[in-house]
Write a structure and sequence with these properties.
With 336 residues, the chain is mainly alpha-helical. 72% of the residues lie in helices and 0% in strands. The N and C termini lie far apart (105 Å).
Length: 336
């Protein structure tokens, strides 16, 4: 009887493991967190009863509630751009010269209702479809500040002061255009690192649309939550009396309200009502608050870092802040 020996493994060939290890994913992490919450429910209940924790929770939830609908709107619009808009459309819609495409992209924000949370994924999708980064970034900055919903809310918050509405719209367009041109001059392609996207071209349009939505909502939503948590922490630990000390100084009050806009991270549809309530500050300082908020805040910087990379966010956000404060000071000195 002939015995057949099993085939020998060639020398140098790695042996196959008996069982493939399962990586820990989001489901396992969620299950672990739920177990911890159950085990630590008694001490956590005591902590959550404190006044600061209650304030933190209120601010965090309010930021998420304000921002999430517009984030979803931006994600859906981004998926539409990525899947249903032909690649050559944007080359025809925007001027071929990048310097002319920047102001056109800035003005395009007038027709799109939304906030800064939705503009980030849209700008990323525009870049993937061949739009020059300078024009996409100009749209990112302008759209949350000059769309009809935001301007209408500003008019309601400042009754009898149409100049504030006009200065907000004009100032935002100036900042967005200047930043787009500055990117053309000094920006580098390696500073923008768009995250890996699923290959959509080989999928049916319906499946590709939902794949794009799932990818963007998970990616951008996580960074939105981090930014909201940071904004809530700042709201709890920054004493209000510090703001009152600088309100009497013309220059410091402008910078202070600009920083406050960054820290509060209020959605652009609601920030005008907060600015109107800060009556101890000058109109110039409140204009700076309205210009900075939709372009630079904690949740927006966090989302920019997630979509475009940290190298981009660490350069773009501070430069935008300086430009917004400078434009606010200039417009306020001349018109207010």
């Amino acid at each position: 009887m002939t015995t057949v020996s099993p085939p020998r493994t060639p020398p140098g060939t790695p042996s196959r493991p008996a069982a493939t290890r399962r990586r820990i994913g989001s489901v396992e992490i969620l299950a672990g967190l739920l177990i911890l919450l159950v085990l630590l429910r008694a001490p956590l209940a005591g902590l959550l009863s404190g006044q600061r924790i209650a304030t933190w929770t209120t601010v965090f939830v309010s930021v998420m509630v304000q921002a999430t609908p517009f984030l979803v709107f931006g994600v859906v619009l981004s998926a539409v751009i990525a899947v249903y808009v032909p690649r050559g459309f944007w080359a025809k819609a925007l001027p071929s010269h990048p310097a002319l495409a920047v102001p056109v992209a800035s003005c395009a924000g007038v027709i799109l209702p939304g906030c800064e949370c939705g503009s980030v994924p849209i700008a990323g999708s525009l870049m993937r479809r061949g739009v020059t980064p300078a024009a996409a970034l100009a749209f990112l900055l302008a759209a949350p500040a000059v769309n009809p919903i935001v301007l209408t809310a500003t008019a309601v918050a400042f009754p009898g002061r149409p100049g504030i509405v006009v200065l907000r719209a004009v100032g935002s367009l100036i900042i967005a255009t200047l930043m787009g041109w500055l990117w053309l001059r000094l920006g580098k392609a390696e500073w923008i690192k768009l995250p890996h996207r699923p290959e959509l071209d080989d999928l049916a349009r319906g499946r590709a649309f939902w794949a794009s939505c799932r990818h963007d909502i998970i990616h951008a939503g996580g960074y939105l939550a981090l930014g909201a948590a940071a904004a809530a922490t700042i709201n709890v630990f920054v004493p209000e009396r510090w703001l009152l000390l600088v309100a009497a100084h013309p220059f410091l009050s402008v910078v202070a309200l600009g920083l406050l806009a960054v820290l509060l991270s209020i959605c652009s549809e609601a920030d005008a009502f907060v600015a109107a309530s800060l009556s101890q500050f000058s109109l110039t300082a409140r204009l700076a608050f309205l210009l900075v908020g939709p372009m630079v805040d904690l949740k927006l910087m966090s989302m920019q870092a997630g979509v475009f990379g940290r190298r981009f966010a660490f350069r773009f956000a501070p430069t935008t802040f300086v430009a917004a404060v400078a434009v606010g000071l200039g417009l306020g000195a001349v018109f207010l």
